[in-house]
């Protein structure tokens, strides 16, 4: 089970793009103790979902729980940059100034077609600790 003080990134365990994202972040993360990865169908994720408002639970997206707050879609994806090295963190404000509706529209387009371009993994390959 996760410690409450640790941030958690919840990803689709059956998505090739999500696996690539998790592995990309994991190779560049400053401190592995800062962020845990969980597939959305895990017991830990179910517990975390049960603590969220219903509107967030139904989002069916990437979730980042950071300092007790839940971020979804583009807000979650972009905030992942904050766990990585300085040259990645400087990209965060540049992406963050893009209005949320535009960011989320881009996110939804990628999410809609992700299975066409990224092969579904046979098993969960990202770090779960």
Question: How does the SSE layout of this entry go?
Answer:
Layout: E1 7-11, H1 16-28, E2 35-39, H2 43-50, H3 54-57, E3 63-66, E4 69-72, H4 73-79, H5 86-89, H6 91-96, H7 100-117
Parallel strand pairs: 1-2
Antiparallel strand pairs: 1-3, 3-4
SS-derived structural category? alpha+beta
Strand content: 5-15%
- Strand order in the sheet with the most strands: 2-1-3-4
- DSSP E strands, number: 4
Amino-to-carboxy terminus distance: 9 Å
* Spatial shape: globular
Low-confidence stretches are: none
Helix and strand element order: EHEHHEEHHHH
Q: Kindly provide the radius of gyration, computed on alpha-carbon positions and rounded to a whole number of angstroms.
A: 14 Å
Biggest sheet details: 4 strands, mixed
Summed over residues and divided by their number, the pLDDT gives a mean of 90
Helix share bin: 40-55%
Q: Domains counted in the coordinates: how many?
A: 1
Number of helices: 7
Structural write-up:
- The protein is globular and about 35 Å long.
- The protein has 7 helices and 4 strands; from the N terminus they run βαβααββαααα.
- α1 links the parallel β1 and β2.
- With 129 residues, it is an alpha+beta fold.
- It has one domain.
């Amino acid at each position: 089970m996760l410690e409450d003080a640790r941030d958690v990134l919840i990803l689709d365990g059956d998505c090739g793009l999500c696996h690539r994202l998790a592995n990309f972040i994991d190779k560049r993360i400053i401190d592995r103790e800062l962020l845990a990865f969980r597939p959305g169908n895990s017991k830990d994720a179910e517990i975390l979902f049960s603590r969220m408002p219903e509107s967030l639970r139904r989002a069916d997206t990437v979730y980042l729980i950071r300092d007790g707050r839940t971020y979804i879609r583009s807000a979650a994806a972009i905030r992942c940059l904050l766990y990585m090295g300085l040259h990645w963190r400087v990209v965060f404000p540049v992406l963050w100034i893009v209005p949320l509706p535009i960011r989320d529209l881009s996110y939804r387009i990628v999410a809609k077609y992700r299975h066409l371009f990224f092969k579904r993994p046979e098993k969960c390959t990202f770090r779960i600790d």
